[in-house]
Structures are given as structure tokens and as C-alpha cells.
Write a structure and sequence with these properties.
Shape: globular
Strand order of the largest sheet: 6-10-9-3-7-8
Largest sheet: 6 strands, antiparallel
Number of strands: 13
Radius of gyration: 23 Å
Oligomer: single chain
Number of helices: 10
Low-confidence stretches: 1-41, 119-160
Mean pLDDT: 77
Order of helices and strands: HHEHEEEEEHEEHHEEEHEHEHH
Structural class: alpha/beta
Length: about 350
Amino acid sequence: MAWMRLPTRNNPVFCSIFNHLHFQKSNSPKTLTMAVADSSSKRPTCPSCSKPTRLCLCSRIQNPLLDNKVSVTILQHSKEKKHPLNSVRIAKLGLRNVNVVTVSDVNFGARFVIRLLESDGILYSNQTQKGSNLGGTKGEVHPAHDSNSTFAAERHLSAEEPFIFATIGKHGVINDLESKWKPQTEAPEMPNFDQFLGSQMAADALAKGFIVKKLQKQKLKESINLEEYEEFELVVPPGSVLLFPSDTAVGIDDLQAMNIGVKNLIVLDGTWAKAKRVYKENPWLRLLPHLKLVMDTLSLFREVRRQPKAACLSSIESIVYALKAVGENPEGLDNLLDVLDSMVGDQRRCKDERLLQHDH
């Protein structure tokens, strides 16, 4: 179904006011002040969809914040957020139960601490002891130090809790991996999260959900020293499935045959090269069942963004088709694809306009 252009769409003032009234919970005077402030910038931008006001997407969403029962967690590459054709903005406008987590490349090393969400009916706390380098608020920077001593301290503080600890380098090379589930073998082998997949105890425990915390290292400004900060702490609830076409991924029919009910869909957002790197540098994703879409549908992106294969889809297309595959099809879900189609049309027209101006 083609999207119809509304007469008011190109009116920046109306667009800003409309979006704030429908998508913000703040009072009207404050909202209008924000809209005016945005209008004074070099290129007025809608605060809800982050698009230029003349290309705002908000009024194109027929049913904002659809109540999707299967939640969606999006791991978004840090360089993808501001891309003009990023389709996650449509998911944020159109779906109520969606969580976007920013993920950066690992250049100087990272650590993962994984706690079980539940064991024997007890919810494990996601707070560390005060004074630990893992404590503090989200995003707080801590001095980097020897990771081995850090792991020793963590294991001492939480000896009774079933943790997984991992340190990785660039491109996801695992340098250290420790857990009570790690099988004891005579011959040394490279650390690998696949080791946990063969343990029934580990599989049963992880199926109840877990919390993963990622700590990144980065360079201090004007210094060769490194600092460590918490990039994210994410709850991975029971029924979480990764939508990614890995070698171990299965179709929805096979997933149902395995008695796996999908409650939370995890999606990687970025170019295919970036998505693959996110997958490699977040090895905890291998602990989840992998789902792939088996379909011949061509992406609406194919005209404006290069795809490695004909069947490759944008993030919002993948989310819509995956939700349908697992039985979610609320009224208005297909409209999100219409909004994507209109956004692609905007990009195509803007490109034509630039070419026309260049010729003249």
C-alpha cells in the first residue's frame, strides 16, 4: 500500500507541534518551547524521529506505539544511530515494547559479567558491592586495570552466585572465560562460549534469563592511558531469541518444534559488516537460540542502500516479518513498512534534487 502525502507534512511548525502533542508526555508550554528551539537550528529536526521536520515520520504512523506482546531488543551499532536511513526510528515510534541498546566496536578490550536472572526462585541482584570497579551509575568511567585481578575480586565477592566472566579483544577474540559450568578437560582449548551449550545444567539455568553487563576500554583524552566505562547492562528475559542468520540459526517451524516460545526478539542493527562485528564482539549472544527468516521478499532498501544479498532486509522489515512469524500481527503493523517505503522515497527525491542543483 502506497503512503499518501498529507498537505501538512511540509509545514515544519505543524510537524513539530503535532509530534510533541502525540508522542511526548510533557505539558504543552514546555513542549512548544522545545519545538521552537529545534526550529532555530540550521536544519530543524523533529525531536521524536530525529528526521528533518520537512521529512518527519511521526504523522505517517497510523497507530503509534502498537502493543506488541513479543518485546523487541535492538543492539544498535553506535555509528548507525544518526544514519538518515536508519529504520530503528520507525520501530521506536511504532512499537511500545522496544528497547534500543547502543553497542560500540571493541578496540582496546572489553569485559562481560553475566549473572543468572533467577535460580531456585531467587532473583539475583544486579548491583555489585560498593567500591568494586563495576559499581557506580551507568556510563560512569573507571580507571582500567589488570583484568585478572578484577575477576579474582568479583569471584571472591560473589562466590555463591553462578557467574560467567569473559574478556575479549578486538574482533571478539576471547582472552579469558571462566564459569562454574566450564567443562574440565585435560587438553587445553581455546575459550569459547559454545562450551556452555553442551551443558544441560547451563542450558536450563540460562533459559530462565540472565543479566549481561559489558565494560569497554577507551583512551583517555590527550593520553595514552585507558579508562573503563560501562557500555550497557541488559536484562535478557526467558524466551529471548536472536534474529541473525548464523550457521546455527533455524527457521520458525524448527524453533517451534524445539518447544521454544519466543517472548523477546533480539535484533542487530547496522550494515551487515557492522552487524557481524557486533555479533562477534558480543559472544554472549551465542547462548541464545538463533532464528532466521526464510523468505524471498526483496528489501525496500535495495534502491538506496547496498545489500550483500537480494534477500537481506532492513531492521524494521526484519522486525515486522519476524513478529508475524511468531504470531504477532497487531493492526497497524504493516503500516510500519509503508512508513519505511515513504522514507526511502524521501531519500530518493532528495538525491534527485541534489543532482538537479548540481547540474544547474
